[in-house]
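Hi support team,

I submitted a single chain yesterday and got back a structure, but I'm not sure I'm reading the token output correctly. Could someone confirm the output below corresponds to the sequence I sent? I've pasted both exactly as they appear in my results page.

Thanks,
R.
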Amino acid sequence: MNWLEHVLGSEWKITPAGGATGDAYFATKDGQELFLKRNSSPFLAVLSAEGIVPKLIWTKRMENGDVITAQHRLVGRELKPRDMNGQHVAELLRKIHRSKELLDMLKRLGKQPLTPNSIIEDIKQAVVFEKINVPQINQAIDLLIKQLPEVQCNEQVVCHCDVNHNNWLLSKDDQLYLIDWDGAMIADPAIDIGILLYWYIEEADWESWLDNYGLELNHHLHTRIYWYVLLQALTSYLWYHAKENQKEMNNWLEHIAIMLEKICHD
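Hi R., thanks for writing in. Yes, this is the structure output for that exact sequence:
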């Protein structure tokens, strides 16, 4: 953390903030609290300007080329699973998906739209490479391929791609934020909507949630939702297969079997 002391000065107390990269820290001094990160995407500035992440205070470029960003440390809490049915969640996700500024920035950063066809090709290649021959996996891929014509969507928006409740933060003054944008993509909004609805909202309440978001639950959207949820389950299985985590592999195989039965009976 010497690089942080060089940026801030030795009078700041610096502690790791966790996370997969190990490049995030909290810094405190005289009641001031900052969240610091090394090499955040330039996307962060637009997210801050749009009020989607806690306010960006400053950005500094180091001599070695690293970029350090400082944001206000949020005083508040993560959302609980039961909170995901709230209107403010639907409204913030709608704001993100409809933001031209976010979309323009991701395009400038070189992001190419993610299409159902390209995703399936990647999945098929991974299954062949890993020499996976599991009936549920093969059946899931066959179904996803069969439904390709039904899930094409002209709408391409900025998707967060990890709308887990732990990534939603509510401040003490009830301002909602969505953090951890490292996996953001340009894609069908059903990627975010589907994962959120499937894992957090009773299906009987989908129409009500989507009404707050600003969409009607029709057959096309319903098909896309389940397509992307099944896709996520496949991706998760492959991830744990690469980690040789048999327990989680079995867990995701169960989910895949449940989803296959649901889709085939609808």
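A quick pointer for reading it: The chain has a mean pLDDT of 91. Let us know if anything else looks off.

Best,
Support desk
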